[in-house]
Amino acid sequence: MTTQEPVELEPPQGETLRVRRDGGVLTVVIAAPPMNLLGPELVRDLVSLIQWAEADEGVQVLVFMSADPDYFISHVDVTQIAAYRAEAARLTGEASIALLFRYLSASRLVSIAQIEGRVRGAGSEFVLACDMRFAALETAIFGQFEGAFGQLPGGGAAQHLTRLLGRGRALEVMLSADDYSAELAERYGWINRAIPGDQLSSFVQRLAQRIAGFPAAGHVAIKERVNAIALAPVEDFRFDSDQFGEGARTPEAQRLFAAALGAGFQQRETELDLGEWLGDLPAAEGGDSSDQK
Amino acid sequence: MTTQEPVELEPPQGETLRVRRDGGVLTVVIAAPPMNLLGPELVRDLVSLIQWAEADEGVQVLVFMSADPDYFISHVDVTQIAAYRAEAARLTGEASIALLFRYLSASRLVSIAQIEGRVRGAGSEFVLACDMRFAALETAIFGQFEGAFGQLPGGGAAQHLTRLLGRGRALEVMLSADDYSAELAERYGWINRAIPGDQLSSFVQRLAQRIAGFPAAGHVAIKERVNAIALAPVEDFRFDSDQFGEGARTPEAQRLFAAALGAGFQQRETELDLGEWLGDLPAAEGGDSSDQK
Amino acid sequence: MTTQEPVELEPPQGETLRVRRDGGVLTVVIAAPPMNLLGPELVRDLVSLIQWAEADEGVQVLVFMSADPDYFISHVDVTQIAAYRAEAARLTGEASIALLFRYLSASRLVSIAQIEGRVRGAGSEFVLACDMRFAALETAIFGQFEGAFGQLPGGGAAQHLTRLLGRGRALEVMLSADDYSAELAERYGWINRAIPGDQLSSFVQRLAQRIAGFPAAGHVAIKERVNAIALAPVEDFRFDSDQFGEGARTPEAQRLFAAALGAGFQQRETELDLGEWLGDLPAAEGGDSSDQK
Predict the structure, then answer these.
(1) Residue A150 and residue B217: Cβ atoms within 8 Å?
(2) pLDDT at C7
């Protein structure tokens, strides 16, 4: 299979993204140690990558994967909310990752998430913004846990999950704030398919190359019509984003974030079983977190 | 896990509902022998329960289950349509269980249906109005059978099933008027999950306590956004409710109800296999029901 | 089980359709050798059948199946686009099979697709327009491959698949242009259920007779409410139809169709594995199709 592109530009590398090109497909490896938190650097690099890829007519498909087998994107860095939001404004003019993610959904580029490890909060919302999601059956773990902090997910989860999973399952996922296996995520419609880990990469690469080989006009026509039905309008993403932004600034939310951070939140080991761990978080409300594991 | 509530009021008991409180969770056991038909008493008690729970800020989650292992809620009592509808008006001002059910869906309270046994007609519509539905894998049976009597389901099934199951499966379920196993109900999206019966109660209680432990502001924010997308407007529920109410009063419907009642409808034994039984109902149209089993 | 109809008219036979009547159920066997392409004859016969069935109050349910075990409806004949569209206008006044298919969806008649063999392109769109879809687990194969030719599906696939499968899976199916097994089609919601081939016919016939035995007023009421929610408006089908019609006339599309036809497209043997085969189609863009299998 040879590419038709006469000149194939090398994509720019980012501090948190490693990018390789194979014909019309860019494979983007997220590498933001220690646990792929979504902070200003990662948002900045995502913005630059999307801008670069959209400007090159030869690029048709983006594949996102992670360098960390345990974390795809863990979630936003709650200590840097203003900073990462500001980075998003470079692409959309608005300080909101919900609108950044929606920009990707609406792009002519076809985006595929190849998920290994944990993908929670804004990580889940990022893969929901991708056009397709395939996850490693054994290792991928999903969570939309903002409710544990009394918050509405701000990056579009309510928009996507409600449409994909239906009312009952979307409510369960967001109200429980719990972890979900790849198998259950597939059954619920959160992802396209759970695929055995040793076949995931070849499956996604074959699919990406296949799509990149078809006429780009078809991608655009199909995405436009599907998005017209199933992608929520900008104002709904903006509303959710604003609600999270305002909610996260309240003293109550700041107190909950601080208690969680003090107890191990945003630490690699703690978050391996974040779903379980959050079930104990309410105990911190009384100020007594000493008996949390 | 200790509750933060200083005073925990005891919930009122109803003639058809037994209620116990455990922190922010009310577990409501439906007990309306002989087969949990939805009649005026059960509607009256549901209205009182919802009013009481909403007025107590300490209550976050309602869990509904049945005292009868064979019937969760069988369906409405077709001999008392006007009477049970009138009871619903106490809560919403309108004589319609569709609007009562929708009121529950829109409430700040999180509602979970823990389903064992048969849940058909308005019983199915009640659990569809709950925020989540978990069913015993071995014993739960689902049916939306109003079509067998030439009627549109009036309690919101068309609204919920179409959105949850999609056009093809919603049409199948309502046009076939047949019984569906918990396994198939899960596959179709009618329920969140089918869970082995011996694990169901502990699963639901853990989930309910977990949700009740998270800040109530999150419940409200999440429910509002999900409902804005996936909960049909009041006027659509009212339309369906009116159509059933008018349809059920026609001579043709009354004749069909009478023939069915005469042949064993609304009797505990007959309804164990109601789906199968209804397949023979059309024979009654000719007035000859003698060969019905 | 006896029918209530005093006189049971014999349905008309078509050149490409064999029709048999059993009470309120018409079973329609598609027989358009060599591979059940959707051309002007099949569209003409479908129009006549629908008109005849709608005019006979005794007919309640249409079951569509195929005489060819390998092909249900393969797809449109791309060499006869103008001709088959013109035939559709007899029913709806507009030269569009999307509107013909939507007419069937909106009809008082209940339609069930009993799928064995391949159903791709407009074939998939025809079964999506049916009220229910049941497929042989071992032999049914699904594809929505217009994207391989740079086209939006014109017969309603974008409307139906997006609503049934959700954004991610609908994009995957249409962008990949690949083949999907009955098992995966069920998991994605493309069909109601995949059923072992040796049980499929008896399952569908029982269901059809059951539905036909219930009062017709219920069919109409249920279909109207479900369609009000889940069936896209006429203008959206028309838009997609126009986009395909215009796109297929462009020199680029004509060149792609010609290259494909030259390489074996619309030939029975080639299309057995059309999904795989289309993955090599882009190579034809350079004019070199010599190494295509």
Answers:
(1) yes
(2) 64
